């Protein structure tokens, strides 16, 4: 519905001041009706947006023209320094994330991230830069932080591969035979072939690892 204002003015020469007053009033009313039309248009637009966004999932703007916090993607709520896996070989341009590849980056450009990391992952030769964590080819383990499961670890430290100390009880290869009698006349009828020790297993791998899939770790910088 559009609001309209129609005014009929007597064109007789009497009362120029009255006619001018009527013209001024008409202009005021015309402006008021235009304002009502603008409000109605804005309401129609917002109703249309609500219907559109409800169906599409596109974030809606609040009365201040901003996206509400509850409408923001989850990633934007993550704190700077969060680490996540990314199933792409390269991050998109303008991303809030950096690859965890051990790169040196400018402190000034990524100061919020520098406040979190500092020199945790090594010192740069350039005092204006700091190092990102290098998680290429690595598994990540929760920091022990005094629990006693993985003792002696500094936060952010790397750990070499290792197999826990253990042993296997494996007998040698037994054989039967008759040896020469000893001084008491007893005969040896069995023994262990020490020249041919038994191995518990063979392998050609360079490390011990579980099944896995290679993806990129990335860290949030803003």
UniProtKB/TrEMBL annotation:
This is Phage tail collar domain-containing protein. Residues 81-140 form the Phage tail collar domain. InterPro entries: Phage_tail_collar_dom, Phage_tail_collar_dom_sf. Gene3D superfamilies: Phage tail collar domain (3.90.1340.10).
